[in-house]
Design goal:
Layout: E1 3-8, E2 11-17, E3 24-30, H1 33-39, H2 43-62, H3 74-83, H4 85-103, H5 108-115, H6 118-124, H7 134-164, H8 175-184, E4 196-200, H9 210-220, E5 224-230, H10 233-246, E6 252-253, E7 260-261, H11 283-296, H12 300-317, H13 323-342, H14 347-357
Antiparallel strand pairs: 1-2, 1-5, 2-3, 4-5, 6-7
Length: about 350
């Protein structure tokens, strides 16, 4: 079993066992945000993470006599858990398979068959590589598990497209009806059977005794919710997608990166808060800049500000301004620009203000 999940209004809480010691990591995520963040993960990022983990395993194997344990990878996995639960599930499974390759190679096939989607299992398991070379097996396992993650990521992204797009072939149905139809299709991964039990939304340890739990329920006025076991990545995908659609949460396509997201603030947001590949700003920041430029592109004050900015930036590059001087001037000039535009002042007044701000 991978872990447990429960849903509370617009949040989901995940509990995972991180190591054989039974340590339980408990992490909350924004409902809909976790699954859309997963569909937005680029192959380059996921491949890099698998490579880092694989290289660490190879280094550990070559540098010690005893077999590496899960504890060696917990710090790395905790960072993944903070980022996205689906990335964490895959990286944790990869680490477990690497450790298993040292202890019981014959069990790897069965473990992979239980975890991988059938399309990837049918493609790779017939030619499964079993070797004593740590680098070779780390490379093969990383390739297969990463391929599975990419397959599920793309499949889920297409399913979301069919659920929310007005151009979908299912457009005449409601989002919940669309999800049901998709679930009934072969290979959807959404037709899962779940083990469910009652649980408190209070974040208590599973090892806590009943007295501790009862006290926590009084102190926190916690609700009692359905908690589901996660035995496969599709379990979490199916559950989160269902609860996102059932809760009528808005799933939107970012006007900057083109990936899906669920707004965490205003429901009419058009931009996500991610930093897409090749950018150094969040899409929401880029969108705000685009909106501002589009709104004030013809404003003479905005044009005058741009001319002054380019002039002083050139002075910075040529060593005629210090970094701190340019930052201070830029902040003051932007503030003046926004104030003069908001107050409908003239460009001549703005020019005088820029002259006052100019650095000799």
């Amino acid at each position: 079993m991978i872990g447990w999940v429960l849903f509370n209004e617009k949040d989901l809480m995940l509990r995972f066992t991180m190591s054989t010691s039974g340590v339980v990591e408990k992490t909350p995520y924004s409902l809909g945000g976790a699954i859309t963040d997963f569909t937005a993960v680029s192959p380059q990022i996921s491949e890099k993470l698998f490579s880092i983990l694989g290289k660490k395993f190879v280094t550990d194997v070559s540098g010690r006599i005893d077999t590496p344990t899960m504890g060696a990878y917990v710090p790395f996995l905790r960072k993944a858990l903070e980022s996205n639960p689906y990335l964490f599930i895959y990286l944790k499974f990869y680490a477990e398979c690497l450790i298993l390759s040292c202890n019981n190679k014959s069990a790897i096939r069965d473990v992979l068959e239980d975890f991988l989607c059938s399309e990837i299992a049918d493609e790779f398991l017939p030619t499964m590589l079993l070797t004593n070379d740590a680098e070779e097996i780390a490379s093969w396992l990383g390739k297969v598990i990463c391929k599975d993650m990419e397959f599920r990521r793309n499949r889920t992204k297409h399913q979301i497209e069919d659920i929310v797009s007005p151009d979908s072939s299912l457009a005449k149905y409601t989002p919940a009806q669309r999800l049901y139809i998709i679930k009934c299709e072969s290979g959807s991964g959404l037709n899962r059977s779940f083990n469910m039990q009652m649980a408190s939304e209070y974040d208590f340890e599973r090892s806590a005794n009943l007295g501790t739990v009862k006290a926590s329920l009084i102190d926190n006025a916690s609700g009692i919710l359905a908690e589901f076991e996660i035995n496969n990545p599709d379990d979490l995908l199916a559950l989160e997608l269902f609860h996102t659609v059932k809760g009528e949460l808005p799933i939107k396509k970012c006007r900057c990166c083109g990936e899906y997201f669920v707004p965490s603030g205003r429901s009419d947001s058009e931009y996500c808060s991610r930093i897409s590949l090749g950018e150094n700003k969040r899409c929401a920041q880029i969108g705000a800049m685009r909106t501002f430029k589009g709104k004030y592109a013809e404003n003479p004050i905005y044009a005058e500000y741009n001319r002054a900015y380019k002039r002083n930036h050139s002075r910075l590059r040529n060593g005629k301004l210090y970094d701190e001087e340019f930052r201070d001037w830029s902040a003051a000039a932007r503030k003046a620009r926004d104030e003069f535009i908001a107050e409908n002042k003239t460009v001549e007044q703005f020019k005088l203000r820029l002259t006052e701000l100019e650095i000799d």
